[in-house]
Design a protein that fits this description.
Helix content: 25-40%
Strand order of the largest sheet: 1-7-6-5-4-2-3
CATH topology of the largest domain: Aspartate Aminotransferase, domain 2
Distance between the termini: 55 Å
Number of strands: 12
Radius of gyration: 25 Å
Strand content: 5-15%
Shape: globular
CATH class of the largest domain: Alpha Beta
Order of helices and strands: HHHHHHEHEHEHEHEEEEEHHEHEEH
CATH superfamily of the largest domain: Type I PLP-dependent aspartate aminotransferase-like (Major domain)
């Protein structure tokens, strides 16, 4: 081991500086039961051609998400991104441009960022948007801590925030990670049997620092009760609304019904699913939250010669690397992915976004109609949905999804992943890529499963 390694003198020097005598001392805290004994089970050296052949063989074992009808969603969505987006974003000016700290470094990149902010601001109905965050979950968590910075730390007020109980566990986990170190208590907003937030929960949340809800919610439900939430919780509590951005082609912008902050996952605009990342988070707010919001902001001004100029404003780099002064530990943004979103939005325009939202919602409505005609299946939540809804099956959801998979269909998301007590519900998603033949295939196979397998499952 140690005596077989090169530069033995340098290794001993480093170990001595740490007060250790051997490499074994360095790893003494790792239990023997989890340590690899002996040599790593690595294959013999390979040529480049052999490595490529192995890689193709392994990748060929995967099932391409676009190769079969898919009704998976639950936060990431199969969507069409125009070819022009990929063509434009691969230009060298975008790929090599590092986010500048001085305005004179890259006016073009700064202007692109400013355009992104402007588009998001118009989309959500709020005057201020930042340059994006890592993803929708970090944006939601950052909004909670921002709400506490603005509304908390008062003698008469606890640092408490309320979060919808339907918030997916992965997003809720990020929220807990952000809040636990800041001594922020998270309480849950209750939902009724119809899947909508109980208005009494908003009454309970009055006086807290912030309330987080989603529109549409994680079950795809469009909750009209959210339009009265701000009236109930009052001005001293921040209303934070998580959005699916494509839905805003048809659904009222949250800023119009009192949202103080709007966050969300930007992936449906401009970015394919790409195995779960990279993504970009949307964050927009009203003016009272401006100086305490996370991330970077680009401003438009004029230079000494009177020419239009762009620069990072309000938030400096030092603010984010000096932890005692920082509003957030976010010191960067997903600029290239966010830029793809800006390109997609600009190409769509208002009418195009409305048409895209209509395609999503129409596919969802058509699928609901088809499945409601199958005896044994149940749609537990009435009312309007955007692009996904809950389906109850007469048996195990896992068994149903396995059957659909055997028939070449990704049937949806098993809600037992979110709630272990739910064993017979599937979150079924449609997007602009869902065709009528996809819907008919799913309906036919679900009918077959119910008639021949569902009762036994």
């Amino acid at each position: 081991m140690v005596d077989q390694l090169p530069n033995l003198g340098r290794e001993k020097e480093m170990l001595a500086a740490m007060g250790m005598e051997s490499m074994e001392d360095l790893f003494i805290d790792i239990p023997n039961s989890v340590r690899v004994q002996g040599q790593l089970p690595l294959p013999d050296p390979q040529t480049e051609e052999e490595i490529l052949a192995d890689a193709r063989r392994l990748l060929g074992a995967n099932t391409n998400h676009a190769s079969r009808p898919s009704f998976l969603g639950a936060g990431l969505y199969r969507n069409y991104v125009p070819a022009s987006v990929f063509q434009l974003v691969t230009r060298g000016e975008f790929l090599t441009a590092y986010t500048p700290y001085q305005p004179e470094v890259s006016q073009g990149m700064l202007q692109s960022m400013w355009e992104f902010q402007t588009l998001i601001s118009e989309l959500v109905g709020l005057p201020i948007a930042n340059l994006s965050l890592y993803d929708g979950s970090t944006a939601a968590a950052e909004a909670l801590t921002c709400a506490v910075r603005v509304h908390g730390r008062k003698a008469t007020q606890e640092n408490t925030v309320y979060v919808s109980e339907l918030t997916p566990p992965d997003r809720l986990s990020v929220m807990h990670n952000y809040c636990q170190g800041a001594d922020i208590q998270i309480k849950m907003l209750k939902h009724g049997p119809d899947g909508k937030v109980a208005l009494t929960s908003f009454e309970e949340a009055k006086g807290s620092c912030g309330v987080y809800v989603e529109q549409p919610n994680p079950y795809g439900i469009l909750d009209e009760g959210l339009t009265t939430a701000k009236e109930i919780i009052g001005e001293d509590t921040a209303l934070i609304v998580g959005i699916q951005p494509v839905s805003l082609g048809m659904v009222e912008a949250p800023g119009a019904y009192g949202a103080d902050m709007v966050v969300g996952e930007g992936q449906p605009l401009g970015s394919p699913m790409t195995c779960g990342g990279p993504l970009y988070g949307i964050f927009a707010c009203h003016k009272p939250y401006l100086r305490l919001m996370p991330g970077r902001i680009v401003g438009r001004s004029v230079d000494v010669d009177g020419n239009e100029a762009y620069c990072l404003t309000l938030s400096t780099r030092e603010q984010h690397i000096r932890r005692h002064r920082a509003t957030s530990n976010i010191c960067t943004n997903e600029t290239l992915i966010a830029l793809m979103g800006a390109m997609h939005m600009a190409l769509l325009g208002p009418e195009g976004l409305q048409e895209l939202a209509l395609r999503n919602m129409s596919a969802s409505q058509k699928l609901k109609e088809e499945l409601s005609n199958i005896a044994g299946l149940n749609l537990p939540h009435e009312g309007p949905h955007f692009n996904e809804f809950v389906l109850e099956v007469p048996g195990s959801a896992n068994s149903c999804l396995e059957y659909l998979d055997s028939q070449g269909i990704f049937g949806g998301f098993n809600l037992q992943e979110w709630n272990p007590n739910i064993t017979n519900q599937i979150l079924v998603t449609t997007t602009d890529q869902t065709s009528l033949s996809d819907i008919q295939m799913l309906s036919a196979q679900l009918r077959n499963w119910v008639n021949h397998k569902g009762v036994k499952a």
